[in-house]
Structure formats: structure tokens, C-alpha cells
Amino acid sequence: MRQKAVSLLQELTEAHSVSGHEDEVRAIFVDEMEGCGNLSTDKNGSVFCETDAPGPRVLIAGHMDEVGFMVQSITLDGFISFVAVGGWWEHNLLAQRVEVLTRSGEKIHGVVASKPPHQLTAAQRSQVMTIDQLFIDIGATSRREAQEVFGVSLGDPIAPWSPFTPMKQKDWFMAKAFDNRVGMAGAIQAGQILTQSTYPNRLIFGGTVQEEVGLRGAKTAANYIKPDVAIVLEGPPADDTPGMSHADSQGRLGGGVQIRMFDPSAIMNPRLAHLAIDTARKEGISHQIAMRRAGGTDAGSFHLANEGVPSIVLGVPARYIHSHNAIIDLKDYECMVNLAVALAKKLDQTTVDELTRYL
């Protein structure tokens, strides 16, 4: 599983799939899940692989999209103004490389332009520039060249450019978009493992669209799939770096899979959360429990769908998400996949019924 995980994570993180333009990740999912079940999509582009076994409908899914940008306008001298897609802190942007995906499918490299310190006043050096003050240099010398020669159009998606990189620390990797390509890799690998074994339910593996812009894809995905339980796989922010309390850390690299109990978007079904924790303990899977003060995941949409869907979030803590370079520990990823598989095998009809038996 380890060698496959590394190659899959590289392929997924290096894919260009900004919210609303998830085609490359969807294609990887379809290729990997061929033969594991029936493939389909909803009308927003979320993708699913559904088995034909009887029992409760158990969804294991990540979101396919990554934070990025879109072309807002092109200046007369060929520079690109852009809008953010998803949450960005402007400090992370200056001098970073990006790829513009044109309608023809070509990827144009560029850089978020920055002035050298020699050309800044003392006040400007301490200022955080807003996105509407920034621009991307793709090497075009005019608007006409950018559009007619380079093929750039208004609305083209722009993704960070950052190659998948093994680090000196064993099992640590650096790349863009671990939020949430770890979840997509996990959904794929959990699917490949589970469909080669026995399980007491009808499993659906999936990838949703547009999570980074308001959990949008999960809304239509839930209506389309109608799950009885949702296991959401994620790449949440780690909290083990300088300036954070290590004593209170709930997302430490090497600490195992993160089991989220709460965030502002969803209070997880307590019975399902406790089942996940108990399963991790019984299976000897390293884990850490999270209560998040901020943020949200697709569970925020899934748990409110239809008549209500018991949901849980399993995550791989990643340092520096929503930037060009995040870091994960592969062992945490393996713990997430192992727990997703073990938890899915426990969700028979009786267990699922008990999750929502209130009378």
C-alpha cells in the first residue's frame, strides 16, 4: 500500500483542479476505481463508485478541489489580475509560481509578481498587499499576446505550482493541495481494499466538487447518493508548529489519523464518533481527537442532507495548508485509510440503525 500511496499522492497533488474545474482529479478517480463498482456523476461533477451489495448506504468521500484563483482581467501590457477561489492569506502569495489552465488544455506558467525591497518604502515593506493589488506575470508583452498567442481567457482557473517532494525526514512529503488530495487518495485506496474483501453494506466511494467555496458539491452529492452514513476524508491543518501550543495539539504530524468531533459547520453524530474512536483503539490505529474552533468540511452539508446523515471526519494533519507547500507524514495517511476501512466494515444495518434511534 505504501508505494502505491506515494505514487497516487504525487499524481493527485500535481493535478490542476481548482474549485469548479476538478476534471483532472475526477479522471484519476475514474481510472483508479474502474472495476470496483458502478461509476457515475451528479450534475455538478461530483463522482462516485457504487458497489451493488445490499445493506445501508455508506459513503466514503473526499473533495476533489483545491484553493486557487481565476483570471479576472488582463492588463494592456499582458499582466493578469485574478480573484481568489477559496481561502487565502495574502502573505503566502508574493513571488509564488502558478499555472494558468487555458481552454485548450495548455498550462501556462507564471509568477505572482513582487517588488524588490529597493523599490519599497519603509511603510510598504510592512504592508500586507490584498489580492486586488497583486498580478501574475506569464511573460506576455500585451493583452493581445496573452489572449491570442498564449490562449489565456477571462475565467481560466489558476492553480499553485509546486512539485511533490520527499523530505529528509522519513515518510514526510511536501506538496500543494494535500487539502484535500490526501482525502481523495484515501477514498480511492479504501475503495480498492474494501472491494476486495467482505463488507456488510452498500459502499459508495466518491469525490465532491467545490468544497473550498462553501461545501457546495456535498449538497447535491448527498441528494444524488442518499447515504445513510458519510465518512468524510480530509486534509485538516496541523497545529504543531512554533506559535501554537504543543501541549494542546490535536493535529500533530506523526500523531495518527485525526478524528474530528466538532467544528462550526457540523457537530458529528456522537455515536458514530465514539464508534470511530473505539474502532481505532481496538485495531491499534494511532489517532488524535479534534475539537475545531474554526473551519468546516463536507460533513457540514452531508449531516443536514435529506432527513439527516450521520457523519464523521477522518483527517491527515497537514502543515501550511492553503498555501503552495504543505507537509504531511505518510504514517498518518496510512492510519486514516486503515480506520476508514475498519469503520466501514462495522457499519451493518443494525449498527447504522442505532446511530439515529432516538425513541
Question: Topology of this structure?
Answer:
Elements: H1 2-13, H2 23-33, E1 38-41, E2 47-50, E3 57-63, E4 68-74, E5 80-85, E6 97-101, E7 107-112, H3 122-125, E8 136-137, H4 143-149, E9 157-160, E10 165-166, E11 172-175, H5 178-194, E12 202-208, H6 216-225, E13 229-234, E14 257-263, E15 266-267, H7 270-283, E16 287-291, H8 299-302, E17 311-315, E18 326-329, H9 330-346, H10 349-355
Parallel strand pairs: 3-12, 3-13, 13-17, 14-16
Antiparallel strand pairs: 1-2, 2-12, 4-5, 4-9, 6-7, 6-9, 7-8, 10-11, 11-18, 14-15, 14-17
Helix pairs in contact: 1-5, 2-5, 5-9
Amino- and carboxy-terminal Cα gap: 43 Å
Provide the helix percentage.
25-40%
The coarse silhouette is globular
Give me the number of helical elements: 10
Counted beta strands? 18
Mean of all residue-level pLDDT scores: 96
SS-based class: alpha+beta
- CATH topology group of the largest domain: Aminopeptidase
Indicate the radius of gyration in whole angstroms: 21 Å
Q: Just give the CATH class of the largest domain.
A: Alpha Beta
Give the total of domains.
Answer: 2
Beta-strand percentage range? 15-25%
CATH superfamily of the largest domain: Zn peptidases
Can you name the CATH architecture of the largest domain?
3-Layer(aba) Sandwich
Uncertain runs are none
Helices and strands, in order, run as: HHEEEEEEEHEHEEEHEHEEEHEHEEHH
Main β sheet profile: 9 strands, mixed
